[in-house]
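Let us practice reading a record.
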Amino acid sequence: MSSLDAVLVDDEAPARALLRDLLGEHPQVRVVGEAGSVAEAAELIRRLRPGIVFLDIRLGRANGFELLSQLPQPAPRVVFVTAYGQYAVRAFDNEAVDYLLKPLDPARLKRTVDRLCTASGSPSGPDMGALLATLQSLAGSLPDSARPAAVAPPARPRFVARVEDRFVVIDVAQVHTIEADKNYVWFCMPEQRVRARYTINDVEASIDPAEFLRLNRSTIVQAAQIQGFERNFRGRLLVILKSDKRLVCTSGYRERVFRYLGV
């Protein structure tokens, strides 16, 4: 079987590294280039003419859809790889062949690669089975009353961080707090703090809102770590964690905290 040349487009180097490693399990796919922006990707794709592009939605101030109109003809097939589920229908409307949600499920990626290689000689176009699978996975975030009975709950998200010369996968079940640091976040666990290149808004969009609560513009806390709240002498609302640490909860985020505490 001939190899399928692929270009990876994601503005996060750790995300590209993880996808490249996962694709390394599939020798029928050969990663021939990587890009971190729309402009860089457009030039790279015109030069390399890959058969497939794995494309993120959020690319700095741009988005992956802006790249589609710049693809050479015949256009490579496009698989979106993103943490944002709300663009799935738009992606298939733009003839994406698949839509993969971060954190990537290796079994789901394998099905995508198998389909791509099986249909390597056919024209680009959406796959209704892939669309259904994506929408079913998104249904895991619906309320119980609206969730189809056959749909399994979504996988627990994982994040990737570079620690010295290696990449590590962070299990959010072990994370007690997440703290913003400009275009990075700190994942704070009982025994260590790990810095990773995500914005706090990106992290919030990926985690389960039933398990994590945003307290202010720069802090997210694991809900199970909250044991109460108090007001300080300035009238600020402080959330008390099981570790006895106090974190400020600003007005825009109080309602969900109160609701979680049954207040």
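A brief commentary: Confidence is low (pLDDT under 50) at residues 121-129, 139-154.
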